[in-house]
Amino acid sequence: MATKQSSAATSYGEASIRVLKGLEPVKQRPGMYTRTDNPLHIIQEVIDNAADEALAGHGKRIDVTLHGDGSVSVHDDGRGIPYGLHPEEKVSVVEIVFTRLHAGGKFDKGAGGAYSFSGGLHGVGVSVTNALAKRLEVTVWRDGQVANIAFSGGYVIEPLKLRKNGAADRRSGTTVRAWPDAKYFESGELPKAELTHLLRSKAVLMPGVSVTLTTELPGRSARLPDADADGRPGDPAV
Fold first, then answer.
1. pLDDT of residue 129
2. Residue 194: how many CB atoms within 10 A of its CB?
3. 117 lies in some domain
4. Could you tell me the pTM of the whole model?
5. Structure confidence at residue 168 (pLDDT)
6. Mean pLDDT of 45-73
7. C-beta separation of 96 from 160 below 8 A
8. In what order do the strands lie in the sheet with 155-164?
């Protein structure tokens, strides 16, 4: 018995301590950062970012689409996530937002900060969404240009690309499309009833902001109508 105890003791040493970097802690212990019964919470992180743009007075639309391939996209017509180099990190800001924990404009508390109020700080950040996604694509319309970047498991797989804003492009805004990785969740299915309830709650809290939900299914498209004048969404239309 003494020999076994000694062996067990020697197996715990300096080399036993792992230092997880980047988003690896999220992938190793996802339950510490999000709900793991289904992917709704990591999609809510994206929706909250769009809602914060609207709450700050910079957006009037939040459009959520459930795609037939299992991905979910969230579009807003806000200012668009900055994509220039961060002054200290020397990395594109949009890359930092999606690959670093606790990075974002909500922590800028100085005068003239990006957000005077944020409804999303109860969450863990969109970088967790990225860490637990098989693929995540970001498109930003800002400053007369369109920026695209793609990730897989939290890593950049398609570097940032810029092009001039065309005549058919939006003036400003952000679209995030994520494919949640089912291996991190008990169920890979997004609970549509809970998602609908979440979006209805957002519509009530943000009068004048259009909140839509579209489901792509063969032969069928469902939409959550715009909010009524009093901020309450109308009856669902299919």
1. 97
2. 13
3. yes
4. 0.80
5. 82
6. 95
7. no
8. 155-164, 145-152, 133-142, 173-180, 72-76, 61-66, 210-217, 220-223
Distance, in Å, from the CA atom of 176 to the CA atom of 181, rounded to the nearest integer, reads 15
DSSP 184: G
Residues 6+ apart with CB under 8 A from 1: none
Q: Is the dihedral of CA 5, 10, 15, 19 positive or negative?
A: positive
Number of structural domains in the chain: 1
Q: 68 and 61 in contact (C-beta within 8 Å)?
A: no
Please report where in the chains the tokens 């795609």 appear, as a residue.
67
Contact call for residues 106 and 52 (beta carbons, < 8 A):
yes
The tokens for 84 are 């220039």
Residue 184: which domain range?
20-60+73-189
Q: Can you state the angle between helices 40-55 and 192-205, rounded to 10 degrees? A: 10
Q: Is 91 within a domain? A: yes
Output the domain CATH number for residue 161: 3.30.565.10
* 3-class DSSP state of 140: strand
What is the Cα–Cα distance from 12 to 234, expressed in whole angstroms?
60
**Residues whose CB falls within 8 Å of the CB of residue 114, separated by 6 or more in sequence, listed in order:** 56, 105, 106, 108
Please answer whether residues 179 and 135 qualify as being in contact, where contact means their C-beta atoms are separated by less than 8 angstroms.
Answer: yes
CA angle at 121 for the pair 116 and 125, rounded to the nearest 5°: 120
pLDDT of residue 88: 87
